Amino acid sequence: MTLLGRRPRAPEDPRRLRELLDRACELAVDHQLGSVVVGMAGPEGDLLFPDLLAYVQSALRVEDAVFRLTRERAVLFLADVNRGQVESILSRLRGEFGDRFPATKAPEVSLGFYELPAGSEPVTLKQVLPSLFQDS
């Protein structure tokens, strides 16, 4: 137990992260559907970021997925979209979060994107992850 009375979350299984990326590659290659992989990061110790991430996760479609790396970092997989659509979706969700849960300041979030266009070649986590968390 922590001081706040909650147990720290166990990190998610890294095999699941590979499976999610493999699925995005399969959609791009076999089904001609593009996907976008997004890295979301908040400042270390930010109390609002986990709530924002939970809100984003609850608003995504069933075919989309969120993989939590740490308390302040996550990887999102959004299928059948392009980067512009994803940026619009995340901007809207951040605005809705701020409207529904007003705080003294909005949560700080850094975003990184890796687009897998329809028909693209498969990629590895080693190729994708560095581009998602360059600035954080």
Summarize the structure in words:
The mean pLDDT is 85. With 136 residues, the chain is of the alpha+beta class. α2 crosses α3. It contains 4 helices and 4 strands; from the N terminus they run αβαββαβα. The two termini are 28 Å apart. The longest helix has 18 residues. It has one domain: 2-Layer Sandwich (Alpha-Beta Plaits).
CATH topology: Alpha-Beta Plaits
Strand content: 15-25%
Give the tally of β-strands: 4
The sequence of SSEs as H and E is HEHEEHEH
Measured as a percent range, the helix fraction is 25-40%
Class from secondary-structure proportions: alpha+beta
Reading off the top of the CATH hierarchy, the class is best stated as Alpha Beta
Rounded mean pLDDT score: 85
Intertermini distance: 28 Å
Radius of gyration: 15 Å
Strand adjacency order, main sheet: 2-3-1-4
Tell me the number of structural domains. Answer: 1
- Number of H/I helices: 4
Low-confidence spans: none
Q: Assign the CATH architecture.
A: 2-Layer Sandwich
Shape descriptor reads: globular
CATH superfamily: Reverse transcriptase/Diguanylate cyclase domain
Strand count, sense and closure of the main sheet? 4 strands, antiparallel
Describe the secondary structure blueprint for this structure:
Blueprint: H1 14-30, E1 35-41, H2 49-59, E2 65-70, E3 73-79, H3 83-100, E4 110-116, H4 125-132
Antiparallel strand pairs: 1-3, 1-4, 2-3
List keywords for this structure.
136 residues; alpha+beta; Alpha-Beta Plaits; 4-stranded antiparallel sheet; 4 helices; 4 strands; 40% helix; globular
